[in-house]
Amino acid sequence: MALPVQGRTAIVTGAGSGINFAFAELLVKNGCNVLIADLALRPEAQVLVEKHSKGPVRAVFQKTDVIDWQQLERMFEVAEREFGEIDIVCPGAGVYEPHWSNFWRPPGSAPSKDSPTGGRYALVDINITHPIRTSQLAIAHFLRHRDNGRPKHLVHISSIAGQTSALAAPIYVATKHAINGLVRSLGKLERLGIRVTAVAPGVIKTPLWTDHPEKIKMVDDSDVWVTPEEVGEVMLALVQQEQVSEVIGDRSGRGKQFKVSGGNIYEVSKTVRLVNQFNDEGPGDRPGNTASDHAAVEEESFQLLAQPGWGRPKL
């Protein structure tokens, strides 16, 4: 199932910034065409697209709202038109528990944008419905090109939140538990030449943390950040290699190695760990997994609950 990415094509949602940008950039550097699907590009992503607009290896931006299924279908159509066959799909777009779609700020309350009569949460649509639908579209494409025998890869973005609980972010945590269940359930697609895996990052220095005051307040100076590039390197290994090293960047084979196979979740802190489905030890306090001050954010949740009429929005 190993797939050297040179000469291949990938779709990465949410690659306008953060982990997904780091993965897309690594793919391009290793000779893989990439379609970046996002609402917008941060400056570093814009530079990547402009630099590789022409040539043997290209990066193409397709503006995409991942909660719109027609736009997801269009994303695949554009990738096929630009590059032909698609080999790697990463439904990576995701958000933390933002104020505009948040358990503690229910639909109809400020500043929620979820309608009390809408029947859905934007956070759920982005973090789990979009990966499910993108996976369906990817598998359909992969099966149409099954005859050539080239292995295919779906790489999902989970989180250590998929192994834990957090009062401050119940919906986010639920979506990441769901990603783990989805990936494990699809693991046997390896029989058809489709490998489905996920990385589960810890505290990553991306806009998902740094641009969100409600999240960044959990981190203090003693906490260790993991970089998007370190996570991207593990994602690349899940596609290109049959084993991934416990020590990020170590390809010597002398250290502890984990077999890369469908249905597996790989926790990424300052090291890599295979997350077992049953009787797992949990993420623990490994460097890069710990945000020290959850209490400050949890207290904010209790303050919201203390407001008169919580949970009873005006229709």
Q: DSSP helix count?
A: 9
Mean pLDDT score, rounded? 90
Strand content: 5-15%
Shape label = globular
CATH class: Alpha Beta
SS elements, strand count: 10
Which fold name is given in CATH as the topology? Rossmann fold
Q: What oligomeric assembly is this protein in?
A: single chain
| First-last Cα distance | 52 Å
Percent of residues in helical segments? 25-40%
Which stretches of 5+ consecutive residues score pLDDT under 50?
none
Tell me the radius of gyration.
19 Å
> Given the helix and strand composition, which structural class is it?
alpha/beta
Family: Belongs to the short-chain dehydrogenases/reductases (SDR) family.
Keywords: NADP, Oxidoreductase
GO molecular function, one term: oxidoreductase activity, acting on the CH-OH group of donors, NAD or NADP as acceptor
Which terms would index this structure?
315 residues, alpha/beta, Rossmann fold, eight-stranded mixed beta sheet, two-stranded antiparallel ribbon, oxidoreductase activity, acting on the CH-OH group of donors, NAD or NADP as acceptor
